[in-house]
Amino acid sequence: MTRVLVPSGALGLGYDADALERGLAARPDIIAIDGGSTDSGPSYLGRGVSKYSRASTKVEWRGLIEARARAGVPLVIGTAGTCGAGTAVDWLVEITREILTDLGQEATVAVLKSDQPGARVASALAEGRVTPLHPAPDISEALLAECSNIVALAGAEQIAAAIETGADIIIAGRTTDTAIIAALPLMRGDHAGAAWHGAKVGECGALCATNPQSGVILVEFDSESFTVTPLADGANATPHTVYAHMLYENSDPFILYEPGGHLDVTGADYAALDERRVRVTGSEWVPSPAYTVKLEGARRAGFQSVLLTLLRDRRYVENAEAWCADIVAKCRAKAQERLGLTEADYDLELRIIGRNATLGALENRTNGAVELGVMGLVTAKTPDMVDEIAKMLNPYLLHHPLTRDEEQPTFAFPFSPAEVERGEIYEFCLNHVMELRDPMEAFELTTLSLPHG
Amino acid sequence: MAEIGQIVDKVRSKNAGPFWVTIDIFCGSPEAFRRVSEGVSTERVAGLFRTDPAGMKRFDIPALNVVKFSLPRPQVQGTRFDRDMHGAAWAALVAEMDVN
């Protein structure tokens, strides 16, 4: 029997302090929390930074470090700092050092890094050990060299290695969402299918229950099942909420691929133990012949500025599409004439907010808007080029007339300047798995004694 | 005829990683499940997204009264052409489909 306490779906989202106390009273064997996801986009991996406030992260992480010390069990975080890149791991290690200093505590900290040098992935590619998933962008050694960060998703084996160091706190780079929860039950010989299935259900905290924002849940694993217990007031797990959580952000709700195999929940049985707890049996783990880890990479995709103008004049609202098309044509001609740039050198796009800015060509509704926003996006290889094109676009968004002979119109700029520099942008460019001969060969595990080590 | 959104509990779409979007139709009752499961072809949903139905996954799950569709994202998440980072707005297209 292994008890895993999950405080919330992600560090930075908050957790219910009373529910965490109840979790500690249930005598967990480990506290496990996820620190990230790709869901906020490629910029975080591209830059190697966290999306959450440092202050929020510190307050919540401090609460868990105190809880861990009182419980005398390890605390593990996976995908530290949103993206799990080395710089984001270092950021959380530094926060941990500050917290331990403030608390006057000492702790051993295992640090697992998941960073993949482009050259390592390129050699694996050359050796035929990198396989595309569907759909996957084409990759090459040159593209790998354009990535600012590549990470591999660690599985239970690498987390187990970190737990085996005996560390009090484990700060891991990119891991699968489930690995941090499944690792200890697997190490102790609990049912493998239950370990992975319970980890999947638990990885978003109380999202598998009613009152989903309450965060804290306990997942208990044994030789044939797992049991999920939400710990906040008014939070209940039912067979429906637990089963339905397999739908969440999964393209296939029955099969889940992990390093070393896959989970199959087709035959799982979800039973209510009482009004609050659900026990699940019948999940199956199917080992694979090869050990593969999934890769994530963010490549540099140029620089971008965004502009915003507002149309409130009825004639312009009604003719916004023609107005935008004319501006794009005129601005492109000017960029060609004055900067010598062709369409291939940059992207210029106007999206009409109030018409189809969300769905683009897939939008199939129309309505009569009172006002429209026009968002300009300028993307190019260098910041100077973006800046020049955005400044050429600006006067059109302010004054461009529908007809040549009318009095010059002026539209509503919500701020000055109307163009906002977004800096360097990134794109996810890997949907591949890499085969490893040994699970640790692509990961780096070190231990520190903090705060002084 | 009714819009799907008017006869079910909820239609949700979310990223399933940066390369896929998944759409969950929580029908809420066996009757609504039957109407959606029988009345919505994979081809119609593919048409909304202008994608090849052969590249889509579909799951009809009576135990949950859920019909689920997954498809490669129309744009990879977060590229400069992507319009919806978390993929939640595509649910509206499905919720606004007519069903018998």
Short précis:
By secondary structure, chain A is of the alpha+beta class. In chain A, the strands form three sheets. Chain A has a ten-stranded mixed beta sheet, sandwiched between helices. In chain A, strands 5, 6, 15, 16, 17, 18 and 19 form a seven-stranded antiparallel beta sheet that branches. A three-stranded antiparallel beta sheet of chain A has the order 10-11-14. In chain A, helix 7 crosses helix 8 and helix 8 packs antiparallel against helix 9.
Which features would summarize this protein structure in a list?
heterodimer; A: alpha+beta; 2 domains; ten-stranded mixed sheet; B: alpha+beta; two-stranded antiparallel ribbon; 29% strand; elongated
Folded structure, characterized:
Chain A has 453 residues and is of the alpha+beta class. Chain A has two domains: 2-296 and 431-450, no CATH class; 313-411, no CATH class. Chain A has 13 helices and 20 strands. Chain A starts with a strand and ends with a strand. Chain B has helices at 4-7, 30-39, 42-49, 91-95; strands spanning 2-3, 10-15, 20-26, 57-61, 66-72, 98-99. A four-stranded antiparallel β-sheet of chain B has the order 2-3-5-4. Chain B has 100 residues and is an alpha+beta fold. Helices cover 27% and strands 29% of the residues of chain B. In chain B, a hairpin with a 4-residue loop joins strand 4 and strand 5. Classes of the chains: A alpha+beta (453), B alpha+beta (100). The interface between A and B is large, with 43 and 37 residues.
Could you name the ranges of chain B where pLDDT drops below 50 across 5 or more consecutive residues?
none
What structural class is derived from the secondary structure elements of chain B? alpha+beta
The most extensive contact between chains is: A-B, 43 and 37 residues
The percent of residues in helical segments of chain A reads: 25-40%
Number of DSSP helices of chain B?
A: 4
Strand order within the widest beta sheet of chain A: 12-13-9-8-1-2-3-7-4-20
Helix content, binned percent of chain B = 25-40%
What is the 3D form of chain A?
Answer: elongated
* Cα distance spanning the termini of chain B: 5 Å
Largest sheet of chain A: 10 strands, mixed
Assembly status: heterodimer
The biggest beta sheet of chain B reads: 4 strands, antiparallel
Based on CA atoms alone, the radius of gyration of chain A comes out at 26 Å
Write the H/E string of chain B, N to C.
Answer: EHEEHHEEHE
Kindly, what is the distance between the CA atoms of the first and last residues of chain A, rounded to a whole number of angstroms? 34 Å
**What's the overall average pLDDT of chain B, rounded?**
97
Number of domains of chain A: 2
Q: List low-pLDDT spans of chain A.
A: none
For the secondary structure, the number of strands of chain A is 20
Q: What shape does the CA trace of chain B take?
A: elongated
Strand content of chain A: 25-35%
